[in-house]
């Protein structure tokens, strides 16, 4: 595997072993392939993008179907500007609506509309089937549990 020169002896970062590089590159490929395949399936089976779907999932995960925009950005791991542009596009299509916060007047909420609920209701079955086909069906119950533990551990540095 590629091992850059040590830059005249100043390089102190240990490089990945061949096995570590193989695993890392496989992980990167898996992420690319999953993202691309799920996006293609979403486009083929619905009028939603994966970004639309991600927003609608967040809104359907809460009882009243609305969240603060800042919380939505945090949950999605997006910059506020990206969320704002995404919500404008979705609002134009009637999938979401914005509300001012009556309690403090500082923040805004976004809520799912009936059209948004209908859209995610139509898109979700195909998405779930594809997730099963690409991931879940390749692992037995023990492997899936182990995979979940590994993913949770790898997410720890990102949990604030």
UniProtKB/TrEMBL annotation:
Q: What organism is listed for this UniProt entry?
A: Nocardioides jejuensis
Q: Which PANTHER family match?
A: MARR FAMILY REGULATORY PROTEIN, TRANSCRIPTIONAL REGULATOR, MARR FAMILY
Alphabetized InterPro entries for the sequence: ArsR-like_HTH, HTH_MarR-typ, MarR/SlyA-like, WH-like_DNA-bd_sf, WH_DNA-bd_sf
Q: Name one GO biological process term.
A: response to stress
UniProt protein name: MarR family transcriptional regulator
| Pfam families reported for this sequence | MarR_2 (PF12802)
Q: Where is the HTH marR-type domain?
A: 20-156
Q: Which Gene Ontology terms cover its molecular function?
A: DNA-binding transcription factor activity
């Amino acid at each position: 595997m590629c091992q850059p020169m040590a830059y005249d002896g100043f390089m102190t970062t240990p490089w990945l072993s061949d096995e570590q590089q193989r695993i890392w590159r496989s992980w990167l490929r898996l992420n690319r392939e999953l993202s691309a395949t799920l996006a293609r399936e979403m486009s083929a089976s619905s009028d939603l993008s994966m970004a639309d779907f991600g927003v609608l999932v967040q809104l359907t995960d809460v009882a009243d179907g609305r969240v603060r925009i800042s919380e939505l950005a945090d949950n999605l791991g997006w910059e506020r500007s990206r969320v704002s542009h995404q919500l404008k596009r979705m609002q134009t299509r009637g999938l979401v609506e914005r509300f001012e916060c009556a309690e403090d007047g500082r923040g805004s909420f976004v809520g799912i509309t009936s059209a948004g609920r209908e859209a995610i209701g139509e898109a979700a079955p195909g998405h779930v089937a594809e997730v099963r086909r690409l991931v879940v069906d390749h692992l037995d119950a023990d492997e899936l549990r182990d995979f979940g533990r590994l993913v949770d551990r790898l997410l720890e540095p990102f949990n604030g």
